[in-house]
Amino acid sequence: MNRTTNDPRHPWARLTAAVRTVPDNRDEASPYGFATRIAALAMAQERVVVSLFERFSLRALGVSCLLALCSVAINYHLIPSPIEDELLPGGDAVAVVFDLAD
Questions:
Q1: What is the DSSP letter of 47?
Q2: Residue 96 near residue 90 (C-beta atoms within 8 A)
Q3: What does the alpha-carbon distance between residue 88 and residue 51 come to, in Å, rounded to a whole number?
Q4: Are 55 and 49 in contact (CB under 8 A)?
Q5: Model pTM?
Q6: What is the average per-residue pLDDT within 37-54?
Q7: What is d(CA 62, CA 11) in angstroms, rounded to the nearest whole number?
Q8: What is the spatial distance between Cα 85 and Cα 70, in angstroms, rounded to a whole number?
């Protein structure tokens, strides 16, 4: 009663041998519009948010850049210019003009 699967008279061996002889005549092409449906489903999927940090990181980067630009704009008059130091050594434009006139 105990037969192995290697026995050619075993039902499983006969079934697999019969299946191997049948030709596969199915159409291998995908149905019309299949690629479009797959692409639409892929684009419709909502992204999975991994962490709270990932969700707000770009917003935090934008806010920090805006704050940096605002701080530079507010304190622009305090930044010393090397050109002004060369042209106006004393810091007084009227004195420089009078010196040039002499």
A1: P
A2: yes
A3: 55
A4: yes
A5: 0.34
A6: 78
A7: 70
A8: 26
Provide φ and ψ at 31, rounded to 5°.
-65, 160
Tokens found for residue 62: 């934008």
C-beta atoms surrounding 33 within 10 Å: 9
Tens-place pLDDT, residues 66-93: 999 999 888 877 766 666 556 666 667 6
Helix ranges (DSSP H) in the chain: 11-21, 34-44, 52-74, 82-87, 93-101
The four Cα atoms 55, 61, 63, 64 give a dihedral, to 10 degrees, of 140
Give the SS3 label for residue 65. Answer: helix
Nearest to 14 by CA among 24, 27, 3: 3
Q: Which residues contact 14 (CB under 8 A, 6 or more apart)?
A: 8
DSSP label at residue 78: G
